[in-house]
Design a protein that fits this description.
The chain is α+β, with helices and mostly antiparallel strands and 195 residues long. The protein has 4 helices and 10 strands, in the order E-E-E-E-E-E-H-E-E-H-H-E-E-H. It has helices at 84-96, 125-131, 137-147, 176-184, and strands spanning 2-10, 19-22, 28-30, 48-54, 61-69, 72-79, 100-106, 112-120, 153-159, 164-170. The chain starts with a strand and ends in an 11-residue tail after the last helix.
Length: 195
């Protein structure tokens, strides 16, 4: 039995497998490590893709996959230093007694270059974002509604203090803001065959 749906690619648990988040149900599925009808080696976490899965075996395989938008997700744990905007947003949340806060980020010319969210770390927040149990989709969709649909770079960062988790959405994939985050937190952009 085959099933064609829209999925967000998440961090894979191991080589050869894909973790796919169903965009309708927010259920995550992990594919088989082999037996796909298409190559999955070039599929990166964050890609929005239309995929057709074959559920006739105990672990689904991929019959077809088409990348709709090559957004990239990056995860970094125990980061230092925490950039000022994130630290300020978290301090404001704590003062207000809130478990989350958000704000736009700006470059040195005062132009909006991203959106930042901070969430209290309850011991599983970072892992829940990484594994899809707590979908990033509503945050990405909100940015796309405001800024138009485009490939972006999404960074999920947990400071060494482990007090909170930062989700930053860089508006321009490959832009200066995304490049700065990648360099600061040692998360090189993966090679891609899809642009």
């Amino acid at each position: 039995m085959e099933d064609a749906r829209s999925y967000r690619v998440l961090a894979a648990p191991e080589a050869g497998r894909l973790r796919l988040l169903d965009r309708e149900t927010y259920d995550a599925v992990v594919t088989a490590s082999e037996g796909h009808d298409v190559s999955v080696e070039e599929v990166r976490p964050g890609y929005l893709a239309d995929a057709e899965l074959d559920w006739s075996t105990s672990e689904p395989t991929i019959r077809s996959l088409s990348v709709r938008r090559p957004t990239l997700y990056a995860f970094a744990d125990d980061i230092e230093p925490v950039f000022d905007v994130a630290q300020d947003a978290w301090s404001e949340a704590r003062l207000a007694g809130d478990s989350m806060n958000s704000r736009v980020t700006r470059n040195t010319d005062n132009e909006v270059n991203g959106v930042l969210y901070v969430f209290a770390e309850d011991g599983t927040t970072f892992e829940s974002f990484r594994d899809g149990e707590r979908p990033l989709e509503p945050l990405v969709d909100r940015v796309n509604e405001q800024e138009g649909e485009a490939p972006r770079e999404v960074f999920v960062l947990r400071p060494a203090s482990r007090e909170f988790v930062i989700v930053t959405i860089a508006l321009r994939k490959g832009g200066q803001f995304a490049d700065t985050l990648r360099e600061t937190y040692d998360r090189p952009r993966p090679p891609e065959s899809v642009e």
